Amino acid sequence: MDKKWWKESVVYQIYPRSFNDSNGDGIGDIKGIIEKLDYLKNLGIDVIWLSPIYQSPNDDNGYDISDYKAVMNEFGTMEDMDTLVEEIHARGMKLMMDLVVNHSSDEHQWFIESKKSADNPYRDYYIWKKGDNGKPPNNWSSFFSGSTWDYDETTDEYYLHLFSKKQPDLNWENPALRKEIYDMMTWWLDKGVDGFRMDVINLISKVDGLPSTSSGKDLDWGGEYFMNGPLVHEYLQEMNQQVLSKYDIITVGESPGATTKDAARYANAEGTELNMIFTFEHMDLDSGPGGKWDVKPWTLGDLKEVMSKWQYDLAGKGWNSLYLNNHDQPRMVSRFGNDGEYRVRSAKMLATFLHMLQGTPYIYQGEEIGMTNVRFESIEEYDDIEIHNMFREAVTEGGQDYDKVMEAIYVKGRDNARTPMQWDNSDHAGFTTGTPWLKVNPNYDEINAVNALNDQDSIYYFYQHLIQMRKQHDVIVYGKYELIQKDHAQIYAYTRTLDQDELLILCNFSGEKAEFSYEMTSKQDTVELLVQNMETVEDQFLSELTLAPYEARVYKISRS
Ligand code: NOJ
């Protein structure tokens, strides 16, 4: 058992644009975050992951950076950042920065230079290629719809962008670029930040020659040519040697398309690359063959299979991150729970399910008060570039059914997660005194932080309890995972064991009562109910249990 502080930590993600606005311009800011640090400390979290606050033209809300060493004007100043670091540390918490280095903004000085001429010293900071008889160099489609290539007249070449055309991919094959990135990371670490969440870090190495896919289609998903590419481990090991290994920090790499085999290398226990990665496999359970917007129902069987695979395959080899939502995903209670009658209970059930697994849990802002998905009436009310590009391609250009596409946006759109944080029941949920950049979810009257803090049975205090349990019971962090009764149609049940301690975790994922039976091994075992999401649980024997809809329980069984 290799003990590490970042395994024992709970991380809270802040999406700064939507967290708290201190100056009334409708956009969250750094001073606004500082105002809420006590709220986070009180929740019990250890680490804050801050989505990008760097200078950016905001084509993708800060995930398009034009200066890695400057702060976005709307968010404040570098002095505010220094204060934020100090205030976080003063409360015994840590700060993990977002690091977006697969691509920069097209307004970054490097790209402005790179575009000027084919022999500019910055040309090879990006990926340029001649077209193929008037067509782009290959047929890869972008994460944000359309081609991954944009034509530039000055040099009659195309540049690669896996995301929007304002997010050109950086060329990691260029050692000068890599050195700039490592220097920039060192600069932030020397300022006192405590780690990095690395944006799509497993996309930084592309297959030689950038070939088209074999389908012959004009546009096709080229993931196999850039996800977990040939040199990605080499680059991460170099980054580790030159930067990460010199500090006691936390690192997590966002990694779409990574298998558990890949993860066992990225997050290897020897520590030569990263601490952990974010997998997408459980986030893809409700995507059909047509991808993210081709929504299909997820099943409990699939969830058990995917989560268990990650638990088993990384045991002793790597380390998991645990999440059910973030700024790119719909709200978990709307997606995996019930955001109507059982909103509070199912949010607590999902929290129990996630926090009892092996790995480092991540809480996304608003999750701790059970915020839900939103349904805006018209496409104009949405902000997200991914939504708008998809809508244009599908409806405006492709003639698909408006209502059907809107339905997919309601279920999967990223703006579900980005509506402003709901602090109280005053105008705009207390997020801003101005006009918010994205409308507030109309349910803020009921769902808000003040209500949560005034109610001892709230989701907020439930998270607080889960986090406290984690600090008190090593088995929650380090215990071995085992899925039990895998064919149960309603309950996700698993155990965790460490020495004499065993946890039995029971989560009813259905809106119906569910029966469960567990045989104790020895009469002397003692059983304690550590976590429960219902007000009272009648005395019951483990051998004959009935769980209410969305009920969750965690029993601690101690062997004598
Ligand atoms: C993943 C980030 O989480 C997402 O918000 C962003 O749009 C893409 N990477 C591109 O940076």
UniProtKB/TrEMBL annotation:
<dbReference type="GO" id="GO:0009313">
    <property type="term" value="P:oligosaccharide catabolic process"/>
</dbReference>
<dbReference type="InterPro" id="IPR032091">
    <property type="entry name" value="Malt_amylase-like_C"/>
</dbReference>
<keyword id="KW-0963">Cytoplasm</keyword>
<dbReference type="InterPro" id="IPR045857">
    <property type="entry name" value="O16G_dom_2"/>
</dbReference>
<dbReference type="GO" id="GO:0005737">
    <property type="term" value="C:cytoplasm"/>
</dbReference>
<keyword id="KW-0326">Glycosidase</keyword>
<dbReference type="InterPro" id="IPR017853">
    <property type="entry name" value="GH"/>
</dbReference>
<dbReference type="Pfam" id="PF16657">
    <property type="entry name" value="Malt_amylase_C"/>
</dbReference>
<protein>
    <recommendedName>
        <fullName>oligo-1,6-glucosidase</fullName>
        <ecNumber>3.2.1.10</ecNumber>
    </recommendedName>
</protein>
<feature type="domain" description="Glycosyl hydrolase family 13 catalytic">
    <location>
        <begin position="13"/>
        <end position="418"/>
    </location>
</feature>
<comment type="similarity">
    <text>Belongs to the glycosyl hydrolase 13 family.</text>
</comment>
<dbReference type="InterPro" id="IPR006047">
    <property type="entry name" value="GH13_cat_dom"/>
</dbReference>
<dbReference type="Pfam" id="PF00128">
    <property type="entry name" value="Alpha-amylase"/>
</dbReference>
<dbReference type="InterPro" id="IPR013780">
    <property type="entry name" value="Glyco_hydro_b"/>
</dbReference>
<dbReference type="GO" id="GO:0004556">
    <property type="term" value="F:alpha-amylase activity"/>
</dbReference>
<keyword id="KW-0378">Hydrolase</keyword>
<dbReference type="GO" id="GO:0004574">
    <property type="term" value="F:oligo-1,6-glucosidase activity"/>
</dbReference>
